[in-house]
Amino acid sequence: AQSVTQPDIHITVSEGASLELRCNYSYGATPYLFWYVQSPGQGLQLLLKYFSGDTLVQGIKGFEAEFKRSQSSFNLRKPSVHWSDAAEYFCAVGPGYSTLTFGKGTMLLVSP
Amino acid sequence: DAGVIQSPRHEVTEMGQEVTLRCKPISGHNSLFWYRQTMMRGLELLIYFNNNVPIDDSGMPEDRFSAKMPNASFSTLKIQPSEPRDSAVYFCASSARTSGVEYEQYFGPGTRLTVT
User: Fold this and answer.
1) Contact B109 A90 (CB under 8 A)
2) Which residues of B touch A44 (CB under 8 A)?
3) Taking Cα atoms as reference points, which of A31, A29, A98 lies closest to residue A67?
4) pLDDT by residue (tens digit) across A10-41?
5) Which listed site, A1, A7, A17, B52, has its alpha carbon 20 to 30 Å from B58?
6) In terms of DSSP bridges, do strands B88-95 and B97-98 run parallel, antiparallel, or are they unpaired?
7) How many CB atoms lie within 10 A of CB B50?
8) What residues contact A13, with CB distance under 8 A and at least 6 apart?
9) ∠A47-A50-A55 over CA atoms, to 5°?
């Protein structure tokens, strides 16, 4: 069975500081991995995805993520956080875009 | 494009009542997904349609839940009878699937259901 663990429920980062959100997955085959962002009262928006190839993937809004097969991880990073990045972030795994399994999310708070 | 449209945005109902949630996918998309989001369980896939046919309904919690997609532009998720533990945010998402290749899911804004 596929599963996703996001160990941090909440993270607080100062504006301008760097960010790393952790994601660990369990999947029986080559995983398709995703990061989504959810702003309050909104649906989820795809930030970036990894299917194959270069293990460092770039996404929208200045985010990137690195796939590490040996660690079963797909951590999300941003070098400098803006107040508008405050939201909830979800990591997901699946055989493609369908039948995704999501983590429980990490709430990012940005302090001035 | 208007994006995925869900109605109502908020629903408050009493235990035992029937609840119907509605979704209009993005025009041209032929896959549709219903999700439920709760604090305890996170975001769970309930059911997935492709070309109006249910492909995977293994996430539907029990017989009180049913979903239909009578045509390519409309889907409903019905709960009858509703229970307080059904309180959650229900999301609909749609995507395009062509020649076996699935593309990005686009999510609607969700329906917040409260069952008292």
Assistant:
1) no
2) 43, 91, 93, 107
3) A31
4) 999 999 999 999 999 999 888 899 999 999 88
5) A7
6) unpaired
7) 17
8) A19, A81, A108, A109, A110, A111
9) 115
